[in-house]
Specification:
Layout: E1 5-13, E2 19-28, E3 33-37, H1 44-51, E4 59-64, E5 67-68, H2 73-78, E6 80-83, H3 95-105, H4 112-121, H5 137-149, E7 155-159, H6 167-182, E8 186-190, H7 194-200, E9 203-208, E10 211-217, H8 218-225, E11 227-233, E12 250-252, E13 258-264, H9 272-281, E14 288-293, H10 296-320
Parallel strand pairs: 3-8, 3-9, 6-7, 7-8
Antiparallel strand pairs: 1-2, 1-4, 4-5, 9-10, 11-13, 11-14, 12-13
Helix pairs in contact: 3-5
Length: 321
């Protein structure tokens, strides 16, 4: 199936010489939720801005629904809805008026039935006559999404969609995004909340210092790069890890009450059997145990740290040469 967004060799260097993106290649599948992760200044917003036609690239090509974003700007832009992080709305307008106006900006004929359906879907129908200035932050965020969807785009960009939203509203927002995907909208979100990507995304992209470090199916990524921890709760605290266990990947908790064993979930031999045998030989009992897989956050931090170390090593090599 042809990707709904195709990015090829994308680069962006600003007038001052700062390179925000370096040779980025990315394909986003129709109907998926794609999460773009990266620290501040990594290039997330620049990438989104180029795809949405707000910023011109220095190099490369981008198409949306088969339309080149530079050659076929109007057609490409009509396929895209963008919800920026900032809550920029017409404060004195009613919800109904501002969403209708946004539809008209794309040359779409009035369609009250569609606008009503959209506002109901976003739980805004009861607020349709309210001035936006009177709404809560969470409701304003919903209005921004309604504006972005008013012209019936096939692609929706959400830039930090739950920033400043409380936990309860964040869960509502996640449910709403899933509903949009089920209605056929492809969703690309940037987020600082790792649990947001872990909860919602089908695939994850990690960008760091303008380079796309990795794009992977979320579950495959966690399976490939995750570790598991086996925590053994001890009946009596230990001062140090016993010598008979010293060569194993074990750590002792600060209070000495737990031994934590880390192992690779991909490995055919986890070493747990050997660990239990040695514990028995050392007469070390445990009263409980449980396992925990690495979270997406831990994997993300490890990827970014690894990319930085690689870049630093390359820089050192070039300096020495």
């Amino acid at each position: 199936m042809e990707p709904i967004i195709s990015v090829r060799g994308l680069g962006k260097t600003y007038a001052g010489g700062f390179t925000a993106l370096k040779n980025v290649d990315l394909e986003i599948r129709r109907g998926e939720i794609f999460a773009l992760l990266g620290p501040n200044g990594a290039g997330k917003t620049t990438l989104i801005s180029i795809v949405c036609g707000i910023v011109n690239p220095t190099a490369g090509r981008v198409s949306a629904s088969g339309f080149d974003i530079q050659r076929d700007y109007r057609m490409a832009r009509s396929e895209i809805g963008l919800v920026p992080q900032e809550l920029a709305t017409d404060s004195f307008e009613s919800v109904w008026a501002t969403v209708n106006f946004s539809r008209g900006l794309f040359g779409k004929a009035p369609d009250p039935a569609y606008i009503e359906k959209l506002l109901r879907q976003l739980s805004l129908w009861e607020k349709k006559d309210s001035r936006i200035m009177s709404l809560s932050g969470g409701m304003k965020r919903r209005v921004m999404i309604a504006k972005a969807l008013s012209h019936e785009p096939s692609i929706l960009f959400l830039d930090e969609p739950t920033a400043g939203v409380d936990v309860e509203l964040r869960q509502d927002m996640w449910d709403m995004v899933r509903g949009l995907r089920e209605s056929g909208v492809t969703i690309i979100l940037t987020t600082h909340y790792i649990e947001e990507a872990e909860e919602m995304a089908d695939r994850v992209g990690v960008i760091n210092r303008g380079e796309l470090v990795l794009v992977e199916d979320k579950h495959t990524l966690m399976q490939k790069m995750g570790e598991k921890e086996l925590s053994l709760h001890l009946p009596e605290p230990l001062q140090t890890v016993p010598e008979i266990l010293a060569d194993l990947p074990l750590t002792l908790s600060a209070d000495g009450s737990q031994l934590v064993y880390r192992f690779d979930i991909k490995s055919s031999d986890t070493g747990i059997a050997e660990l239990l045998r040695r514990l028995n030989d050392a007469n070390i009992d445990f009263r409980d145990l449980h396992t925990r897989e690495s979270s997406l956050e831990e994997i993300f931090v490890g990827l970014v740290k690894g990319a930085r170390q690689e870049q630093q090593a390359q820089l050192t090599k070039e300096t020495q040469e």
